[in-house]
Amino acid sequence: MNLIDIDADLGKAEVFRKVEDFLTEKGFRISKVDQTRPWGGFFVLDESQIREFRAMFFEDVTLSEEQLEQKLSPKFLLVAPGARLSWQYHFRRAELWKLINGVSGIVRSETDELGEMKQMQLSETVSLKQGERHRLVGLDTWGIVAEIWMHVDPENPSNEDDIVRVEDDYSRK
Q1: Less Cβ crowding at N or C end of the chain, within 10 Å?
Q2: What does the longest C-alpha to C-alpha distance in the chain come to?
Q3: pLDDT of residue 1
Q4: 50-58 contact pairs (CB < 8 A, 24+)
């Protein structure tokens, strides 16, 4: 499915520019860009475009009309080669991930003990449960993962502060 032409040797700024160009070309409005993460960064898309986002990247996922009217935080995670997100979990959300470009690994476990790292498959939806420990891992190239948050309580949606880091390569709390 590699939707974006990204060479393995491109720098962070160029990768972000290519992803931004791709999203704009596809008609998505970007509400936030964060290139400050030590592992890469992310794009948050306009919440009102969740139907288009789901149709393009999560066509295999059925969401009810009620779910589609909730905040689902459509997002793209960009993980650099050799980088890793923290070993983490969330109290207020489950997540859906789909690798749409590049190569990435995923580690998951029901406990704080690290599971085995498995290579993600392009176009395969990964469903992470609320409280499930997980980590996105950059392998040989930039990995680009589409993400939807499934909030446990739509009246009190999750946010970027809803991260419990069990382990982190960058000494973040």
Answers
A1: C
A2: 43
A3: 60
A4: 50/74, 50/148, 52/27, 52/28, 53/28, 53/146, 53/148, 54/148, 56/26, 57/98, 57/100, 57/146, 58/96, 58/98, 58/125, 58/146, 58/148
Tokens of 55: 């149709």
- DSSP code of 47? G
- Domains of the chain, residue spans: 12-167
Instruction: Give the pLDDT mean for 30-36.
Output: 97
Place of tokens 């990435």: 104
Q: Calculate the alpha carbon distances from 82 to 42, 105, 138, 142, 151 in Å.
A: 17, 10, 5, 9, 30
Could you tell me the strand order of the sheet in which 93-101 lies? 30-34, 40-45, 75-79, 143-151, 93-101, 125-128
- Position with higher pLDDT, 67 vs 43: 43
At 156, is the pLDDT very low, low, confident or very high (cuts 50, 70, 90)? confident
